[in-house]
Amino acid sequence: MMEKTLRIILAGVMAGFILFLAVSVVYKLTGNISDPSISKLFRETISMQWFYKILLLNVGTGLIMAITYSLLYNVLPGGGLFKGIFWGFIMWVIMVHQPMIMHLVAGKFTADLLLTWVLQGLTSYVAAGISIGLIYKQ
Length: 138
Fold this sequence. Notes:
By secondary structure, this protein is mostly helical. It is 78% helix and 0% strand.
């Protein structure tokens, strides 16, 4: 039981770092945070404190992803790697599509935003899911 708990924590922290890395790279390239799950939370001036908050939020998201993955492990299709890819894809759908639809309805949606959300979101959540699938192995 203790080993399983440690694997969940390690998988969650690793997934959180992957999500943070993706947000940081996109910020460096575009000059803004486009991840719909966190962009509205931080309206303050960009600073190191701001990035620490983003890091903690992403690690928290990674931990929630890993805990939920462990609870749903037996109902997810495939083996370890495919389970991770599938889980990352499901998380991407949940985290990105609802804000995407809201932006479409509000008329605030742009091609750049779509590209960033699809590439950053899909890449980061699937990579986080893969790390969870590889680390968690039951």
